[in-house]
């Protein structure tokens, strides 16, 4: 099977050197994503498109298309058949078998995109092919506006491309083509969507989590960060950084006036984020804040919060309605994470300020022992995101097996969309519990059974197995064929 990759339109208007750099990066990302599915995949770079060719079977082809649809920089993925370009009559004979069945009882229009010098025009191709299809298929007629079926043909120099299926990509710039950013992620609806938007815009996005208290919350945030990286990160090397903030919260609760705590907590987070970004040579921070959504996110308060950072603070959602944020979370697959996230909030003001005054905030901060912030930063843990599961396994011994144990129950924790693309074929009993529901449903599982967690790449299953084993009560292993 061959695929034509149509890259994001904004790439095409760049200068030649920039366009070449972006397309090269896109080709690199495509190879990185697809080689886990088909190590023999071939990616060819052209000036106006990329070609992907694979000898994999139908199941792997579906997985490849799904992966390509989530690679930033791609507008369309076209499934194509290629032929040496002949005369107009020969073009008809190649198009006819590809569309005859789909045109039965349907209206259609032929669209031809052509590059190179030929003895015919694109309109002549459309007329010739359209007339033949109307005469030789069960189509009900030609309809140039809003047809039931669009017959796509592309001609590039001496090659004919007959397009079968057209899949919409997410657009944007290739991840890694723009500078890195550090995203402050909490696992709710907003920050994962903000992180996705920076990834889609080509920024290599590292994740920074402030642990206000609780292992469950940290594991939940690791899950959503892993999901975003696996789905949209194109295997870029990024870090997950966890900063223990319990002592910071305790200091705020005992030393800072109640109405100022929310703003000052955010300032403390930005101070730490700024220093982490400096060490990583990152020029911008990212948050999921949206103006006026909560008390700390008024324009005045955001201005006071940003005063402590020497770096640009990006807020992709700043003027976005909550309903639209939830819709985006649904579209990108993070809504269920947020809905099942074990949230923790240790700083809740009774009467929070919405118009913070910088001098008042700075005065309150004189009561805060800044050495606590230094300790939090010193105790921060940096882990390559693809090693999060291994980090958890180092804490507890979780057995990883390539063959299911007799009598064990396999728990397929993949996202339903992923499970549908590649159903698990084993003789054991299989439970389908998406990873974002596993923590809640694990309490109801019978204790007299051995459970083997399974996911596509083995990362999420290791993370959850470690977590469940730490809680005790279940016999848990990992199934990684």
TrEMBL record:
Organism: Parahaliea maris
Molecular functions (GO terms): ATP binding; CCA tRNA nucleotidyltransferase activity; tRNA binding; tRNA-uracil-4 sulfurtransferase activity
Domain THUMP: 62-166
InterPro entries named in the record: Rhodanese-like_dom_sf (IPR036873), Rossmann-like_a/b/a_fold (IPR014729), ThiI_AANH (IPR020536), ThiI_fer (IPR054173), ThiI_N (IPR049961), THII_Thiazole_biosynth_dom (IPR026340), THUMP_dom (IPR004114), THUMP_ThiI (IPR049962)
Protein name: Probable tRNA sulfurtransferase
Listed GO biological process terms: thiamine biosynthetic process; thiamine diphosphate biosynthetic process; thiazole biosynthetic process; tRNA 4-thiouridine biosynthesis
Keyword Nucleotide-binding among record annotations: yes
Function summary: Catalyzes the ATP-dependent transfer of a sulfur to tRNA to produce 4-thiouridine in position 8 of tRNAs, which functions as a near-UV photosensor. Also catalyzes the transfer of sulfur to the sulfur carrier protein ThiS, forming ThiS-thiocarboxylate. This is a step in the synthesis of thiazole, in the thiamine biosynthesis pathway. The sulfur is donated as persulfide by IscS.
PANTHER family recorded: TRNA SULFURTRANSFERASE
Entry's EC annotation: 2.8.1.4
